[in-house]
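Issue 218. Parser rejects a valid record. Input:
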Amino acid sequence: MGRPRHAVIAFAIHGPIERRDLPGLCRRVRAVLEEAPPAVALCDVSPLVASDAVAVDALARLQLLAGRVGCQVRLRQASADLLQLLAFMGLRDVVPELLAETRRQAEEREEHLGVQEEAEIGDLPV
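Output the parser choked on:
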């Protein structure tokens, strides 16, 4: 009989993260994931101060660690800057965000200024 497996575990990453912080961060997260491997690890990245290459490196490393214990990291409350940087670096699919939050955040960003109608170019007002 193996160790108990949780469906979801959540943790947060605070920053800014410096390159010298990466080994310690990985050790701490690995210890949590190996204690009772979850199916999904929700990583709240809202406390990150900077969306930079070091933050992306940290998230990619955490995804690798998670994969080794049979789970996947999903980002929670990722900023638009962080998501754009992940996409620019080709890691958008490697470190996905929580899908439901993506939809909710997109809806919150939409401007609701009244009814807007679509028209064909040939339907321009005279």
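Fixed in the parser; the record now loads. Helices lie at 22-35, 53-68, 80-88, 99-109.
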